[in-house]
Amino acid sequence: MNAAVFSDTHSNTALMVEAVRRFRPDVIIHLGDHDRDTAILRREFPEIPLYGVCGNCDMASQEPTWDVVPLGPVKAYITHGHLLNVRWGVDSLVYAAQEQGCRIALYGHTHEADIQELGGVKVMNPGTAGMSRKPTWGWIQVFDNGGIAMEIRQL
Q1: Do 110 and 81 touch, CB atoms closer than 8 A?
Q2: Domain enclosing residue 97, as ranges
Q3: Is the pTM of this model over 0.85?
Q4: Confidence of residue 84 (pLDDT cuts 50, 70, 90)
Q5: What is the pLDDT of residue 36?
Q6: Domains held by the chain: number
Q7: Residue 97: in which H helix or E strand, if any?
Q8: Mean pLDDT across the stretch 103-116?
Q9: CATH, residue 42
């Protein structure tokens, strides 16, 4: 199972669409800011399941603030992160993921790409796919045995 993870696209969608077209993930995840960018992904790739959450810039959004999504044999907790104060650390994010039985926690908001493991939870921020001179996104591989590989990629 391969997942493409994007956050903080802020209406700059061309590179995101190009990455999905090139790598053809099994699942697409958008972590907010701007959640309306998911409509473009849904239109371009209707055959690929897409999960999304709203961010702090997503006014009157229909998307949830967090969700739990299946990635093969594991679950991922997804959120933008602003309501969990991720600018000052990811402890509350990890705790929320653990409470939901998730081995993966995905967040955005800070525009800073990061991968780490805390409390048995693999944590990823894919960075910003839209507001940077070096935009980034995340690629996750979940293997049948429950193994997880994550990497940050340049757009």
Answers
A1: yes
A2: 2-154
A3: yes
A4: very high
A5: 84
A6: 1
A7: helix 91-99
A8: 97
A9: 3.60.21.10
